[in-house]
Amino acid sequence: MKALILVGGFGTRLRPLTLSVPKPLVDFGNKPMILHQIEALKEVGVTEVVLAINYQPEVMLNFLKDFESKLGIKITCSQETEPLGTAGPLALARDKLVDGSGDPFFVLNSDVISEYPFAELIEFHRAHGGEATIMVTKVDEPSKYGVVVMEEGTGKVERFVEKPKAFVGNKINAGIYLLNPSVLDRIELKPTSIEKEVFPRIAADEALFAMVLPGFWMDIGQPRDYITGLRLYLDSLRKKAPARLASGAHVLGNVLVHETAVIGEGCLIGPDVAVGPGCVVEAGVRLSRCTVMRGARVKQHSCVSSSIIGWHSTVGKWARVENMTILGEDVHVCDEIYSNGGVVLPHKEIKSSILKPEIVM
Amino acid sequence: MKALILVGGFGTRLRPLTLSFPKPLVDFANKPMILHQIEALKEVGVTEVVLAINYRPEVMINFLKDFEDKLGITITCSQETEPLGTAGPLALARDKLADGSGEPFFVLNSDVISEYPFAELIKFHKGHDGEATIMVTKVDEPSKYGVVVMEEATGRVERFVEKPKIFVGNKINAGIYLLNPSVLDRIELRPTSIEKEVFPQIAADQKLYAMVLPGFWMDVGQPRDYITGLRLYLDSLRKKSAGRLATGAHVVGNVLVHESAKIGEGCLIGPDVAIGPGCVVEDGVRLSRCTVMRGVRIKKHACISNSIIGWHSTVGQWARIENMTILGEDVHVCDEVYSNGGVVLPHKEIKSSILKPEIVM
């Protein structure tokens, strides 16, 4: 089976992290975002993943060669020369997706994290005999999204309603699809929206079905949702593979610590923390609701919450970092500094406190 | 003869421009900053230029291959693995600088623009019996800098005073040096400051001389000084090669327009404007004290002052851009939008006005 992951643009909402690597390679739960999806696809028998990209292909390609070998799955890039929207890339990658086997192929939005219940999705798709299945997820405020209105019993999609003013349903498009090759006949090679142009037509032909995504879902394309997403992801790990989480007197709630990271004495770590490869967390550090990326050093007695510490950065002794502080790559916060929501671009040194949320360039 | 250009670090002060290119490749008056220096060096017979860098060598090296051919000069890189300060890089590049001929070599700070009077510098250097010559420039507020105290008649340097509290002189280090190979014997391969450690030693031996830099001088490493620097540069062009400046009813003061740029009807351009290769300035546009980089389109009736418009950006119809607005690469300001000092990172669209100076990421 094949899969297409819509990687798309510049990742500007995840700056400053995406100033160092393209978004799919930004780490989430201690591994590149896109790897979570690729591994789940491999697990259900996908043999080739096509990445639809339009930015920094060299960086992506280098990274992928690495993972092709390690994972034993073929990874190729399909590069847009002009932005093709959410459906155009499928037409562009047509030859890679249609291999003559008649098997359906997956399409994923790269920002989405979930439990990726692909085996259940395949089963549901085969059972209904329609042309396409989209996964949907329940939200509290559907009026902000595109709502999918479906027949409760069968899951057959009746229509889509963009930002409905009256209540029509609370399921929205989760950005995970399983499509028969025939869907490609409906898509021209031009900028096209899959939600606005393609799916409504398939729904009109009564060939589009929706499956409610079990488990958590999050679009982690911006820092606040990235942090919430980590909490959901670790909750899920707690249920499915609790042995991967850290344990000990210094651990509170769900905490993921890479095996090469070092944690000092007297720390209190958690809840909802990920500490990446090669990190050093010195003695007496408090970490909560944060991500510490590869190679970062958090010095003694500091306190970090609700923040993201970028690759190879340093947080000084007794520093206090909180309230959606995002440190880019190689940022060094000096001892005793306070950061209240500072967003710091790569290769900077923070020598004085940041008292209110601001960008430091 | 040889030359070393100290390119150094991350260019953070010139962000967002340096998010797209390393600082020496950022255009100044329609060509990469470093090309101004390399061309002036070639003109006095320098056959090899060494760039002391510590960041993004691949981008620099690609660019340089291009210029090596076009200019007929050898350009190599000397890459620091740890920051070596302002003197350490000389030790690192020793083998390239000391070629056995006994000739002195130039050392330049990459951020500096001036008239590069290298022929006069060579003459002055050969005229005294010292080991090193530094160029100095007069400033109004010497207390902010390192002041060079010298004997008026001979130019022999007596001492350096860092940020003097009382008046000791008004000449500061201009970042342009001509050094005998013997100076290399004074520098170890470790982080070293040429102003604080090496020059004072040579001055103590009475072998350091200073020459006052004729003409203008500016450190264009940050946007405000970049804009002032362009004014000084164009003033200088007016005196030395006025034929290169634009003329016509639509031109006020000094304006440099690349031959491949297009200017529409009814525009008023200048003073102190540079318009780069491939730019399109539509009808009725007002530009003053600004730089428009390669591939930019300025739409009808827009008004831009005291700003820098980055490569391939667009400024919409009737947009008003002023007060140190810096648009990074590929930024699109919509019609009728106002930007008062907006600093916009690459690949962004500005759909609503920026009323006070802020960073848009």
Q: Could you characterize what this model shows?
A:
The structure is a homodimer of 361-residue chains. Chain A has 361 residues and is of the alpha/beta class. The first copy, chain A, folds into 2 domains: 2-219, Alpha-Beta Complex (Spore Coat Polysaccharide Biosynthesis Protein SpsA, Chain A), CATH 3.90.550; 227-359, UDP N-Acetylglucosamine Acyltransferase, domain 1. Chain A has 7 helices and 31 strands. Chain A has helices spanning 33-43, 57-71, 88-92, 94-97, 118-128, 194-204, 223-240, and strands at 2-8, 27-28, 31-32, 48-53, 74-79, 105-109, 112-114, 132-138, 146-150, 157-162, 171-179, 208-212, 217-219, 255-257, 262-263, 268-269, 273-275, 280-281, 286-288, 291-292, 297-298, 303-305, 308-309, 314-315, 320-322, 326-327, 331-333, 338-340, 342-344, 348-350, 358-360. The first copy, chain A, has a 7-stranded mixed beta sheet. A 7-stranded parallel beta sheet of chain A has the order 14-17-20-23-26-29-31, with helices on one face. The longest helix of chain A has 18 residues, at 223-240. The first copy, chain A, starts with a strand and ends with a strand. The relative contact order of chain A is 0.11.
- Number of separate structural domains of chain A: 2
* SS-derived structural category of chain A: alpha/beta
CATH second-level architecture of the largest domain in chain A: Alpha-Beta Complex
Q: How far apart are the first and last residues' alpha carbons of chain A, in Å?
A: 45 Å
Within the CATH hierarchy, at the fold level, what is the topology of the largest domain in chain A? Spore Coat Polysaccharide Biosynthesis Protein SpsA, Chain A
| Mean pLDDT across residues of chain A | 93
* Outline type of chain A: elongated
Rg on CA atoms of chain A, Å: 21 Å
Counting H and I runs of at least 4 residues, what is the number of helices of chain A? Answer: 7
Q: How much of the polypeptide of chain A forms β-strand, as a percent range?
A: 25-35%
| Major sheet of chain A | 7 strands, mixed
